[in-house]
Design goal:
With 182 residues, the protein is mainly α. It contains six helices and no strands. It folds into two domains: 129 residues, no CATH class; 52 residues, no CATH class. The two termini are 39 Å apart.
């Protein structure tokens, strides 16, 4: 009986590590995406401001340059790209710290006390997360499966959804084999 309990705790530890690693990867990807857009919009504002100051291309270009500066700055402010990127960075860091704590406990863990504490901490971190983008989560799963040597477990994501994964949260398709009885 003791062996099966240890096996159960080990499997729960592995599942928790999977969750923590998936969340960390997801938030790092969101952070990079959002901070990249924030930097790009700031770049447009700086270059556009310099071009406007130098009256690049004559007066005919000034309204377009002003529109690019205003639109980019407004988008950055309205969508809070820098703030969202920092939030995702903080969440990824919290997940990585939890992963380090789990791994530091060694291969003779988890104990009966450790697993619930780690699970509660993971749920605490997840409570502060914004809604996840479904396809982006699938792409992170794909990378984790590839790293673990189990690419066959990866969900199939089409090229259009891959391209738009950072912008839209596509709904998961219902699995016909998991239909609930009426």
């Amino acid at each position: 009986m003791e062996v099966s309990r240890k096996q159960y705790l080990w499997e729960q530890r592995c599942h928790l590590l999977w969750r923590v690693r998936l969340s960390s990867m997801y938030h790092r990807r969101r952070e990079r995406f959002l901070s990249g857009w924030d930097r790009a919009l700031k770049y447009v504002a700086v270059v556009g401001g310099s071009a406007a100051a130098a009256r690049f291309g004559g007066d005919a270009w000034l309204p377009l340059i002003a529109l690019a500066i205003t639109g980019g700055s407004a988008a950055s402010l309205v969508f809070g790209l820098a703030e969202s990127a920092r939030r995702h960075s903080d969440l990824a860091t919290q997940h990585k710290r939890l992963e380090a704590e789990i791994l530091a406990a060694g291969e003779n863990s988890p104990t009966e006390a450790e697993l619930p504490r780690w699970s509660a901490r993971c749920a605490e971190i997840e409570a502060g997360e914004p809604d996840a983008l479904f396809v982006l989560t699938q792409l992170c799963e794909e990378r984790l499966n590839l790293a673990n040597g189990t690419p066959e477990k990866s969900p199939t994501v089409g090229p259009v959804k891959r391209l738009l994964a950072q912008y839209f949260s596509f709904s998961p398709r219902p699995n016909p084999s998991n239909k609930q009885p009426a």
